[in-house]
Amino acid sequence: MWQNLLAVAAGGAGGAVLRFGVNEWFRLRGWATSSVATLTVNTVGCLLAGLLLVWLEQRGPQSLFWRNLLMVGFLGGLTTFSAFGVELLQALRAGRGDIALLIAAANVVLGLGAVAAGWWLGRMVLVR
How many C-beta atoms lie closer than 10 Å to residue 125's C-beta? Predict the structure, then answer.
């Protein structure tokens, strides 16, 4: 248990530091918004998640440590969008395009709705 927890923590720290570095790289080049940095880490994270899926499938029982370090930790710290991509791919590989569409729509609609609700609530409670 502790080994897996430490793997997630170490991987998460590495992914978060890389995410910060990508944001800074774009900021220092004059990009006014973080949209390009977000798009970059989301795309790279999804590419890495796909590569890791294949690699982990070859590892058997020892894959749990590497999954926790790299997928849950590192990619979770870099971008959780990669988990979203993996879940969509798993649904599509299982022949469940309907579920993939539902997952995609629910994440986008509920995520945007939650951000808007949080923004509205923050304005009501925190701005005086």
Answer: 8
